[in-house]
Amino acid sequence: MTNYKKILLAGAGLIMFAIGTIGVLLPVMPTVPFYLVAAVCFAKSSDKLDRWFKGTQLYKQYIDRFFVDKSMYLGIKILLTILGTAAAVGAFIFCYARHWTAPCIVTCILWVEMIIYLFFMIKNKKNTSS
Predict the structure, then answer these.
(1) Any bridge partners for residue 72, and if so which?
(2) What is the pLDDT of residues 68-81, one digit of tens each?
(3) What is the rounded distance in angstroms from the CA atom of residue 62 to the CA atom of residue 39?
(4) Per-residue pLDDT tens for 12-31?
(5) Rounded (10°) angle between helices 3-25 and 47-55
(6) Buried b / exposed e across 108-117, counting CB within 10 Å, b at 16+?
(7) Residue 127 has pLDDT above 80, yes or no
(8) How far apart are CA 38 and CA 12, in angstroms?
């Protein structure tokens, strides 16, 4: 991977980390989806950032369990679907208004892939508080 791509991924990871951290402080903002994206960005961009993020208490509290058992609570999946759908609709409207056919198609494909991944490739985590 080129240095340019690594810098972009590291920057995106830092932005996602910042937004996720705001979500820790504000109950209306989600945390997990942003931290998941940050974790992927850090893992693909920099070993140093990846080690730093995995060493934080925030990572251990919100993300580590997902990577250990590759499962997610249904509520988190639904929240990610709502956020992803809102982003896809926004991107689609933006592209459609400019008559950009290819980005509209790509947006739709990515949205479908997100749904397939969340609901068919990630198992549901059982609620153990009962």
Answers:
(1) 124
(2) 777 888 887 888 78
(3) 11
(4) 999 989 988 887 787 666 77
(5) 20
(6) eeebeebbee
(7) no
(8) 7
Token pair listed for 90: 């926004």
The SS3 call for residue 56 is: coil
- Within a 13 Å sphere around the CA of 79, how many CA atoms are in the beta-carbon half? 12
In angstroms, the CA 58 to CA 37 distance is 14
Is residue 13 exposed (0-12), middle (13-18) or buried (19+ Cβ within 10 Å)? buried
3-state secondary structure of 72: strand
Give CA–CA dist 111/37, Å, rounded.
Answer: 16
**What does the alpha-carbon distance between residue 96 and residue 40 come to, in Å, rounded to a whole number?**
29
For the chain, the structural domain boundaries read 1-69, 71-130
Angle at 12 between CA 6 and CA 16, to 5 degrees: 145
3 state DSSP class of 71: strand
Buried b (16+ CB within 10 A) or exposed e, 25-42: eeeeebbbbbbbbbbebb
